[in-house]
Queue: 2 jobs
Job 1
Amino acid sequence: MSDEVIRKRLLIDGDGAGDDRRINVLLKSFVKWCHSAAPEEGFTQYQRMLGTLAQCEFSMGKTLLVYDMNLREMENYEKIYTDIEQSITAAHEKIAECKKEILRAKRIRKNRQEYDALAKVIQQHPDRHETLKQLEALDKELQQLSRIKENVEDKLELRKKQFHVLLSTIHELQQTLENDEKSENDESQDSPMENGQMSIVAFSLYGETEETQPVVNKQVELADNVLRLTEERYLPVPYRTPGGGHPPGPVEQPECCVWASEFPHFLLNRVL
Amino acid sequence: MSVFSQSFSPCGRFLAASNNYGEIAVFSLSSSLSPEATGINQKPILTFTAHEGPIFALLSTDAHLLSAGNGEISAWSWAELAKRNPKAVWIRRPQYKSSLEIPEINDMIVNCRDNSLAVGGGDNNIHIMDLETGVFKSVLQGHTDYIHCLSMREREGELLSGGEDGAVRIWDCRTGQSVHRLEVYKYEECARPQYGKWISCLTTDSDWMLCGGGPSLSLWHLRSLSPTSIFPLSGCQRQAMFYQDLILSVGEGHFLSHCLLGGDVKSLIPCSPPSLNTVALNTNSTEHRVLTVGGSSDQIDVFTNLSYKAFSLSF
């Protein structure tokens, strides 16, 4: 216990200068004053003691004020401390918020860049509308051309058939001539009956062999003419573009057809 | 010495790195990242010889570290490695056709869907092994030259492989058939004939794919199989990865490249090894989020902030 007291006293005023010494001096002077006899000296001593007491009181007052001040300072610091703590936590939250924000922004940026990269690739390909238009135009052209092709093919078929008719007629004529020759050479035999209208007509017409030969020659000449003329007229013209040249209109009634169907009559007319 | 590959532990506190001598070094990230770290903390806590030849691929599963070297795959338990006890849990070898020459394994990848491991290497084939039973289920054949790298397309369940023959093949994991084949060197904008046609780095995030090597590093859109951006990086890239909105890539040259998806190179961060082989990002831990790069030196650079190198670990 006495250690405590000594420690405290040393802490407060260890060096001997200051208030402690003043109080000790006051006590000593008080004791001396009590024991002193002379009144004047006693009075001065008394005054001196009062002065010292005043000084001590003053010092004590100062210390009390300092103590108060320290207490208030402490409070102030406590307040500032709590304020700073709050702002630290607020700043932490803001940082976390900003970090989330930055992650979001990075994701958005990544998406935008991916979009840009894809857009770059897509731009290299031609526009869809244009391609569709081109496709449509090509389709139309294709249809037109196929129509023309069909027309030409039909025409070709028709001509082929006509030529076929013509040639078969001529062939029959030749056969008839041969038959006539044969029947000329061999009067006992009947000339073989030909199928076909032409041969029957021919047979009925050309009873006399002497007269038939020049007529038959004329027939052959006529057939040749017909063939030549049809060739000139109906030989397939090299197809020109739809813009110019002979337009493939509706199929015209070819005269060859007429000729072929009226051939025997024509001959009849010429012969009779 | 060259560091060929790295892998972070599932807890995120350790880094395993392998080199060309067949050694694996385990570093403790928590001690090297702590404020009181000294030179000792930048050395590995454990170094051991795992294989006879160089180890080109390291992979971490939930509890094991898989290493591939000398044609075989060994598994080590992370818990044991943390306690400095290197003992292999299992060692398996795929069936190779020829028994004379043992082809090296260049890359491994885990298919989480059916818990299988795909390894690709020098015999031009990809072997699929079931992780639970250890049986090699199937072989994906198709490449005409050895396989450099593998990548997994999680969403569609497809495996991508890039090889020396310049082809990137996309395999369907269930049927084992090659779905697509991209010959990158045939595209004029990517090809760099002076370097060759081999593909050494491949990575994907389901919609997009990065591939590079002989041809320039390029970003491909997988749905349309068309290249969208070409990155003007000199040198051949050996590993690339997607990170947030950036593309990180390492290769020849002593820098780590940051590129944007549009094809611009944002920055080149210098590193200590003169040529880099591997880059790894620790996604398993939030307080040790670091990026590490390793290459043709015994220093492994650690980046705490992506923009600059913080310190180096020493193998």
Note: The interface with chain A takes residues 207-208, 219, 221, 224, 226-229, 244-245, 260-263 of chain B (CB under 8 Å).
Job 2
Amino acid sequence: MGNFAANEGLSVFVILVWLGINAYLFVQFYMNFLTERWFYTRVLLGDALSWARAPAACLNLNCMLILLPVCRNLLSFLRGSIQCCSRTAARQLDRNITFHKLVAYMIAFHTAVHIIAHLFNFEWFMGAQLYRNSSSLPFVLSQIGTGDNASYLNPIRTDQTNPTIVMFTTIAGLTGVVITLALILIITSSMEVIRRSYFEVFWYTHHLFIIFFIGLVFHGFGRIVRGQTATSLLENKPSQCKDQFESWGMNGTFCPKPEFAGNPPMTWKWVVGPMILYVCERLVRFYRSQQKVVITKVVMHPSKTLELQMKRKGFSMEVGQYVFMQCPCVSQLEWHPFTLTSAPEEDHFSVHIRIVGDWTQGLYEACGGDKNETQEAWKLPKMAIDGPFGTASEDVFGYEVVMLVGAGIGVTPFASVLKSVWYKHIQENQNVFTKKIYFYWLCPETQAFEWFADLLQSLEGQMTEKGMVDFLSYNIYLTRWKETEAAHFRVHHEAENDPITGLKQKTLYGKPNWDNEFTTIGTKHPEKKVGVFLCGPTQLADVLEKQCLSHSEAGVKFIFNKENF
Amino acid sequence: NGKIEWAMWANEQALAAGLILLTGGIVGVAGQFRDREFAAYSIAAGVFVCLLEYPRGKRNKGTSVERTGQYCFTVCVKSFGPLTRNYYVRAFLHAAICVPGGFILAAVLGCVCLGIASLIYLAAAIRGEQWEPILPWKESARKPVGESIKLPPQNPPPRPPAEMRRKRAEDLEAAAYVNPIAVTANDD
């Protein structure tokens, strides 16, 4: 086993701390309701009271946490500030969406426990009213407060009702149903199948979180969970008075009727901070979106790839960052993330967009992609940009040796990296720490090569001119090819340049043998930290992560970084 | 590609509703609640909905992702033909199933979730979507072999001109074949 700690240590630590706080809150609040103040309540509800309150406390915690990982502007700012102290810590902030999902699962879990406990609570509250016998303590307790409607214990005030009606006529019950429904709809529309295929459904339904938080804040306003008041506890001590319930408050006895009150609502204290932060986040996004963005060039590449070159006043980026783009004429509400393919040294910024869905198709048509003649500049659509936001690619230049792996369209962030590397070398006054880049591009078909092939060709030419052929070592893997193409390759295999891409280093077929690659690189660069960067599918991430861990020994360390889109 | 197939979301929602009905029913029965016959119904309804909704249908465009081990369920559901293929049927079925759930608190949540799923299925049905089973690729689905392959070839295989095929004396290593005798230039 290799350097697991270097790669995963901090993540594991954060998760353990979070789980620990959950466990602590659960146990603490479970026990809070075992005190004397809740004695009479527990006569009616037993342990179900604690089983409902404990997850409620955890829900407060997790609902507070869930908004934070999606405040991307705040995180970007934090990331920049932390980066000067520790790159490892900064990388943790890349895992924001993973953490958001974990917290969401925890919310779902605690909601389930909370609801099941309350099913029992409602059932037993109802039962106490239905069993109308004055020698039953639960019934006597339920009758308290019938006159003033303030000092009661049992929120079900009469036997002429049923739990379902009570639920829909109390604040807690009604808000509970509404927010649980919102939560379920959010979860079902966030399943990977739906999210990857129908992003719009996922995005719009997710905004039910607004209803969720409003309902959550009001959920406790009815003060439905009631315990004995402090003054009442002085006069009616349960341990002494519980057995004299048939004569409470009567002349000559020293046990008056107990009085009850609900706890003030607490949830707002937990969530108001993150809610404000999130509102600020949306305001920042809105402000940035209002800044004017001009499309300076539109290029239509094969394999349905659209390149947009744009300018915005005051825009500055770093390699491998991404932006969120909005095109009001396509959709007023949707923002979609795209990696920047330009280098910071260029005078514009660019994205390469694959046309796969409604929104990208709409953008393509708005830019005149389906028309034959060139589009007038003034007809190009107005765009809004939020960002740029940092991802792991920024770290590339911190490593002396770097492995870049891009699968299909995943090569986009690396276009930015390679261009930037080149600009840095041209401007010779820059000390470039990175000495060697190994680049792997896995692609199922040849046509997608075109725009990237042009880039590689031009880099190749310039590197030869400067005598730096060894700086960049790249491998292009065709993972699927057609029979006719294979015949063509056989015939031309003696040509010096690769027949498909025209590049000197040949195209390879099938998938790379990662074990060999890692071993070779490890042998060539002992005692070095090698940064491994991937933009591609999860299966490949698992493979590479395993390779990093198993090859990190005796000096050379492979550190794995994954883009998360 | 990318056009929303509502049935995919309806399916997730209905499966969730089935699980919630099942859980609510178990709580009602195990906790010995009043009116526990409704809880028992909720268990049965939940199980039925889960069995019906577990196998994902085939997508019109794009790759369909199966749920683990859904093949046997696919076969069962497929055997009901138009009853399970048609989403109008499913929409009304779910609407009918969810009604008794409204009678006890333990099943109310499942009832409302299933009602929502029913509405989404209705939207899917109106748009003409249908449930198609995801079946493994069969051998017979391959294109039938052409007649010409049964006759011996009439022409030699296509090759680049002789210039390209000839072994170059200055670069013997790079050639694609080996001569039985050494290659020398003509010197007589």
Note: The radius of gyration of chain A is 31 Å.
